[in-house]
Amino acid sequence: MEDEEYLFIDNKTVVALEKMRQHYNALVEAYEELPTLNTMRKVPLEDAISMIGMIMEGIMNELSDYDWEEVRRDE
Fold first, then answer.
1. CA separation (Å) from 14 to 3, 39, 44, 75?
2. Structure pTM?
3. Residue 4 above 60 pLDDT?
């Protein structure tokens, strides 16, 4: 069945997604450390960060059943 094949994720993909999640978290932390920005700069940055966050959350939810600790042990 095609759907089952589509759901298969290899360890390399999972590790790459985990790295992306970590970098996203670092991006949010760096943004929070910025000095006060004017609205013209603040709104586009917040929109971009929110959009990336929503997409990453969707991807991570799809992988919620994956054993992340097993992937780390395999490295």
1. 18, 37, 29, 11
2. 0.64
3. no
